[in-house]
Design a protein that fits this description.
Shape: elongated
Number of strands: 14
Distance between the termini: 23 Å
CATH topology of the largest domain: Alpha/beta knot
Number of domains: 2
CATH superfamily of the largest domain: SPOUT methyltransferase, trefoil knot domain
Largest sheet: 8 strands, parallel
Helix content: 25-40%
Strand content: 25-35%
Radius of gyration: 20 Å
CATH architecture of the largest domain: 3-Layer(aba) Sandwich
CATH class of the largest domain: Alpha Beta
Length: 246
């Protein structure tokens, strides 16, 4: 199934531009009158008929819409520190989208070796992965923040009531005062459907970062007995959520 992507949708019309238009016309050789399928990135699949075509711009009329196409019954937000080797992080982005992830936050920790991350290429990878895995939603990727900034922005403030979101932080070290639980057990016991999981850099979270997360409502978890790379741990967390609900 050929899938295209567009955000240029209004008044019963959908426009492909840039690489999407070139791929449609030059590579796949579509012409006026052809029916094509387009995702809007927000969960809807559009069936469209081409009414004008060039390698720079393809204008279509929308014939029908299928909402929640390829959706999953949970909301997963992965906060994952960029890896030193950028190819590994891009692999994680692709697989997390294929499995089922809604939002991704690159987080820079105390022990991070990679301090700079640009999201422009990541957005293209996520669009491609959504089309390949037959999903109408493209995961949103946020601008990078520090681990502490992420915790402050997504944790529970002191005195704040629980909001039903399950917040998890996975790290490798042991702390007898707050032992880690199995991510599988925590997910299976959870009755909601909105999950945040934090995965640290190659050097792991610092104890200070972990303590801050726990103080803001994050539950410390482990992903099994194996020591996993950052990108493997992130994909494992995505799979754990997938198998919990699917």
């Amino acid at each position: 199934m050929e899938i295209f992507f567009s955000r240029e949708i209004s008044s019963g019309r959908c426009i492909l531009s840039g690489d999407e238009a070139a791929h449609c016309i030059r590579v796949l050789r579509h012409r006026e009158g052809d029916l094509i399928s387009v995702i809007d990135g927000d969960g809807t699949l559009l069936s469209c008929r081409i009414i004008s075509a060039s390698q720079q711009k393809v204008e279509t009329e929308i014939i029908s819409e299928t909402p929640d196409w390829g959706s999953h019954p949970y909301h997963l937000h992965l906060a994952v520190s960029p890896t030193k080797n950028n190819d590994r992080y891009e692999w994680f982005l692709e697989k997390a989208c294929e499995i089922g992830t809604d939002e991704i936050s690159p987080t820079i920790g105390t022990h991070s070796e990679r301090k700079i991350f640009k999201i422009s290429r990541a957005e293209k990878i996520l669009v491609s992965a959504a089309k390949q895995s037959l999903k109408g939603t493209v995961p949103h990727i946020n601008e990078p923040v520090t681990v502490k900034e992420f915790i402050s922005g997504h944790g529970i403030s002191p005195g704040q009531k629980e909001d039903g979101v399950l917040r998890l932080i996975a790290y490798c070290f042991d702390d007898s005062s707050c032992p880690r639980q199995s991510v599988k057990d925590v997910l299976n016991a959870y009755e909601g459907n909105e999950v945040i999981v934090m995965i640290g850099p190659e050097g792991d979270f610092s104890r200070e970062e972990a303590e801050l997360a726990i103080s803001r409502g994050f539950i410390p978890v482990h992903l099994g007995q194996s020591r996993l790379r950052t990108e493997t741990a992130a994909v494992t967390a995505a799979e754990a959520a997938y198998f919990r609900w699917m």
